[in-house]
Design a protein that fits this description.
Layout: H1 2-21, H2 25-37, H3 41-53, H4 61-76, H5 80-93, H6 99-104, H7 108-117, H8 139-154, H9 163-192, H10 198-201, H11 204-237, H12 245-266, H13 301-317
């Protein structure tokens, strides 16, 4: 009873802080947990739904964590159909064995099985033992796969395609494409550098684009880390305008650098990717030189034949 009393006091203090600092999602989540501890499930749901509905990016950590917690509260209330709604959506779009599930809800399959055991119909399209094969390899590609799922759904439900989501989708798509091109140009450089046909492929235009996209890939990687940190700061402080000035400047400078390099890259000549396995002639090493500095030579075939004939004739004469 005393613990419940102290939790209520803590909840009241959080409400006071909300009045001072504004609508801070991190504080609301703490308030929801206090309500759950006090078994005030309806109060917790109201807070969690407020957080979820106030988050425009349907793929953000905040949106996912609040949605998951809502399902868990419905389970506590014995509302199994409501509890199963969000994990069923994830299972049907990302898959039970997806990287999303591994990251945010490792025991989601177990959660769904409990829902099914309590009367929730099992959708035919969801197989519990379903194993998803992925083409995606890098963390960026894995994340973009999730964004692509929302993008596809957004073709019917336009409200999913918020400005925040569209920016994130387009930035990550460009980041992946730039890294892919950089990797191909890097392979070309390693393939033809120091070979006889080097000048045919490693041109001035090639090097200009290679150096620019190399710098762009590095800047995009640095900015993406800044972006993630900035989102955490927004959640912590209750809005972008409340983030410390130094952090806002780092974010703005990083974004400006990416924009500058993108514009520079767009003004450069595109390079055709030509590698040996795609039909390019095999690159050969430049001819080695002897001690005198002259290239080694071999006798022509007809000269070898004449030498053998002369040797045989001399042997017969003797």
């Amino acid at each position: 009873e005393n613990a419940k009393k102290y939790r209520s006091i803590a909840g009241d203090q959080i409400k006071v802080l909300e009045g001072v600092y504004g609508n801070v999602p991190a504080m609301k989540l703490k308030l929801a947990e206090i309500n759950i501890s006090n078994k005030d499930y309806q109060g917790a749901l109201e807070v969690l739904l407020n957080v979820k509905n106030g988050e425009p990016d349907r793929t953000s950590d905040l949106y996912v964590k609040s949605s998951k917690r809502i399902s868990e509260v419905f389970k506590m209330q014995g509302k199994w159909v409501d509890a199963a709604e969000y994990p069923q959506f994830i299972a049907s779009t990302a898959g039970l064995k997806s990287r999303w599930v591994d990251k945010f809800w490792p025991d989601m399959e177990k959660f769904l099985e409990e829902c099914y055991a309590n009367g929730v119909p099992r959708p035919k399209e969801i197989a519990v033992t379903k194993k998803i094969e992925y083409r995606m390899k890098t963390p960026d590609e894995a994340e973009f796969e999730q964004l692509q799922t929302v993008w596809d759904l957004g073709q019917q439900k336009k409200e999913l395609l918020t400005p925040v989501f569209l920016w994130r989708y387009n930035f990550l798509k460009g980041k992946i494409e730039h890294f892919k091109e950089y990797s191909q140009l890097e392979r070309m450089l390693l393939t033809y550098k120091g070979k006889e046909n080097e000048k045919e492929f490693i041109t001035t235009d090639f090097m200009a684009r290679y150096e620019t996209i190399k710098a762009l890939v590095a800047s995009e990687s640095d900015f993406w880390k800044l972006h993630r940190n900035f989102q955490d700061l927004i959640t912590k402080h209750g809005g972008p305008e409340k983030v410390p000035a130094d952090d806002r400047k780092k974010y703005d400078d990083g974004l400006a650098k990416v924009k500058e390099l993108n514009e520079k890259l767009n003004g450069l000549k595109a390079i055709k990717i030509v590698l040996p396995e795609e039909g390019a002639p095999a690159a050969e090493e430049k001819p080695s030189e002897g001690k005198t500095g002259e290239a080694k030579t071999e006798a022509k075939p007809e000269e070898k034949t004449e030498a053998k004939t002369e040797a045989k004739t001399e042997a017969k004469t003797e």
